[in-house]
Task: structure prediction
Amino acid sequence: MWHSGLAITLTALAAAVLLTTPAWADGMLTSRGEAVRVSDRRIAFDSGDDLLGPSVLRTADGYRMWYTAVDRPPKDSPLIAACPWLAEETHIWEIRYATSGDGINWTPECTVLQPGLYDGLRLTQVLMPCVIADDDGLKMWLTVRESVSKKYRVAQCSSTDGIAWSDPQIALELGTPGEADDGATTSCSILKENGIYRMWYGGYALTDRKMRTLYAESTDGATWERRGVCLDTGDEGSPDAQRAYRPHVRRIGDGYLMLYTGINDGTLRGPYVIMLATSDDGLSWERQGVLIDAGEPGTPDELRAYDPCLLPSDGGGYDLWYIGKAADGVRRICHAKVAITAQ
Result:
């Protein structure tokens, strides 16, 4: 059937191990003429902890993943002793590292970044990594919260091995009052093209308390020139009416594809969905609709699907990792196959 300009085919996947969702659109035809189809939704990584925001890179012998995990250190732990301001936190988010041979079966390796004191920054949270391979090693952009301001901002650090990272430095400060990112800068996606770092990131506006996707550019990855909102929230009642953020951008053919998290409930207690937008230049975006809705009852993403990360896979197509939240309240990393073909 047709809905909001999208060609939508509804199917039910038969295998019991997959996340079957008969009510979600498992395919769409974008306005750029690309057919996008999702299949084989399943759990990829369940550590027993709440997880967020995977960032995955392919290597010659497999996959590397940096992801966010919750920790609740006891009040007498060495971390709290070294950073007493963390005693006020009910939990902390930290960044961990895992490896895989196939992108589905993962081995947790270690924690690579925790809240702490970094070059004068007293950080209470570190989360939502975006890692890219650069000329001189690896670069990570992440979201941090500082203990005094309590504000979330995008920071940047670097590594030669992906395990030992330099101290995070603030890369993107809050916008000036009245701008769409005057309350927070968060959850970014980075591409490096022709020597220019391109950043799509979430901005929180204090005026209407909505989160949108904004765009910035840099020649060194540390100092950024803001370009403003590139994807606004949707119309009232749409799946992304309150938040259109946590973007993941890829170059597809002669254009760009963005997967992002859509939320339509101002209380943030409602469904989270993965939505799709397309662009010719990465600056002006056209939303295409919901790509992955919440799953059916009993599946690991029955309440929410969000925080996408997309990579080309062997033999064509793409691998998609994302966060699924189940009825038990646990957030796990899920995996799906995505086919994108020109029509």
About this structure: Residues 23-342 form a domain with the Tachylectin-2; Chain A fold (CATH 2.115.10.20). Confidence is low (pLDDT under 50) at residues 1-25. The CA atoms of residues 275 and 289 lie 6 Å apart. Residues 78-82 form the longest helix (5 residues).
